[in-house]
Here is the input.
Amino acid sequence: MKVFFISFALLAVLLAVYPFVFDHSEPGEKVEGFPWQIDIGVNGASTVFGVTLGKSSLADAAGALGDDAQLAIVESKGETGTLEMYFGHYRAGLISGKMILQADVAPETLDTWKQTAVKVDYMKSGLARKYTLDSDNLPLILQSVVQNITFIPTVNLDEAIVLGRFGEPQEKIMVNDTLTHYLYPSLGLDVALSSEQKDVLQYVSPDQFSRLRRPLLKQSTP
Here is the structure.
């Protein structure tokens, strides 16, 4: 009986990571929106999940990803905050997870929208506040350009899966014994693998990759 339960647990793990390891589309079927499908345009801009970073607006993103998103300004203590579009249940084929799009908005505009927010809550961590925005500002909010995307897959990944989907990273940065970042500057991608928390994929336009790398160097283990 013990052997049965161990085998069942192993099968459950294999089924969970299967979408990341194997292609599962039907012959001739083109499934788009996978985390590893990153297209670099002739101008160097990257497109992932149907969104071109530095070019697509939040309205464009909603058209590509669906309109079941939450819009809010998330503000950590001492910071101006960031306009975010949050999808709690993103899915492409068998791949699922949470997705956060952050937009490029001037600080003074963020302050204006915060002043007219209809609700202000603390996030679960208690370290940041979330401003629910007035719908009257929605037309302007949706014109904001997407700057970066964070994808948190439902399944836990490992190094073999990351290398199989994205290849060898240009650089690996170990923050501590439980967290390692795999950096792909040419793709504008940072894959953070954690043994204690959820794995995270962050996407920016390749010419903006230093924004992801610079903070990691300060945190890295010598």
Confidence is low (pLDDT under 50) at residues 1-18. The longest helix spans residues 2-21. The helical segments are 2-21, 58-65, 107-115, 138-141, 159-166, 210-219.
